[in-house]
Amino acid sequence: MKNLSVFKQFMSQPRRVVIVTHHKPDADALGSSLGLWGYLINCGHTAQVITPSDYPAFLHWMPGNDNVLIDEEKNKQSIIRHFESAEIIFCLDFSSLNRVNNLGDAVRKSPGKKVLIDHHLEPEHFADFEQWDPKAASTAGLVYELIIELGHREKITPAIADCLYAGLMTDTGGFRHNNTRREEFMIASDLVSMGANPTKVSKLIYDTNTLDRLRLMGFVLSEKLIVLPEFNTAYMTLSQQELKRFGSQTGDTEGFVNYGLSIKGIRLSVMIYERSDEIKLSFRSLGNFSVNELARKYFEGGGHKNAAGGSSKLSLQATTQKFLALLPEYKPQLTAADDSEY
Are residues 232 and 181 in the same domain? Predict the structure, then answer.
């Protein structure tokens, strides 16, 4: 972190802290937030995690989950008070304030100092302090590194280690993605030495499904997965009606897009699904094909080189057609020889 000494001096006395993460938090967003929350509590600060939306039930096991405030009507006044009184706001796992929906304005207007901890490309640079590294595989890893830089390794309890390990594990795809460096294994090893339980965390996140989710997955793979070999591309779509048919809950479609990339020869996989107010897109790629560039240019999104998200105000059918119409533009990149997939 730049200006680490200034940040350390500011945090040397008890502060009123707010921690914010992005819309529809995943394991890295929530794990880094609750890991940081636990650390700050151990340091004597008053801290509150606030999320702009709900998140998957398979993350509810994380220590501190019961104290999270979700931005919904019943919590509005409490959230306003927290932002107005915050002396410092930590913004985790997002690079732009539009990723936190209505909370973005609250963050900007708050008199508190801002801290960005993130690994996504092209950050907005709105914060007073930044722990930002696009080479890092996870925000949880960056939270760990900040705690170590501050000389507080002993304050990482097994509960905190579990939260941080969850973020690190999922954003590396179980240490399988090409963002997994030596550093990720070193962090994971140290977290385990501090009490993180890999078997428990993996079971709670990867192997805890509802019957409805498994049936939804079967439906997607058997009836909704389309392969376009001429573009080395796979895509799948889900309407609201189809999601309701399987009783879909927040997080039920997470990871589906990765199945497209498991098909031999596929370089780009896209999941397009309908929500109440917009269409969401999830992009994954292999090698040098940048889905971050594609999502930013055409779908008001972004993220990482090989993993990004986007959205559309068009209908599901129109969004799908827009995506398909773009493929000829990217055909040279999608079909070119590329030895960088690994």
Answer: no
Polymer length of the chain: 342
What is the C-alpha to C-alpha distance for residues 275 and 333, in angstroms, rounded to an integer? 31
Read off the pLDDT of residues 170-194 as tens digits, 9 standing for 90 and up.
999 999 988 999 999 999 999 999 9
Q: Which two tokens stand for residue 6?
A: 């200034």
Structural domain span for residue 43: 4-206
Residue 200 in 3-state DSSP?
helix
* DSSP assignment of 92-145: ES-SSGGGGTTHHHHHHH-SSEEEEEE--SS-----SEEEE-TTSS-HHHHHHH
CATH number of the structural domain spanning residue 252: 3.10.310.30
Cα angle vertex 123, ends 120, 125, to 5°? 145
Span 27-50, average pLDDT: 98
Give the DSSP H or E segment for 27.
helix 27-42
pLDDT attached to residue 341? 67
Q: Is residue 340 part of a domain?
A: no
Residue 341 lies in a domain: no
This prediction's pTM? 0.90
Q: What average pLDDT does this structure show over 58-76?
A: 96
What is the average per-residue pLDDT within 302-318? Answer: 94
As for how many domains the chain has, the answer is 2
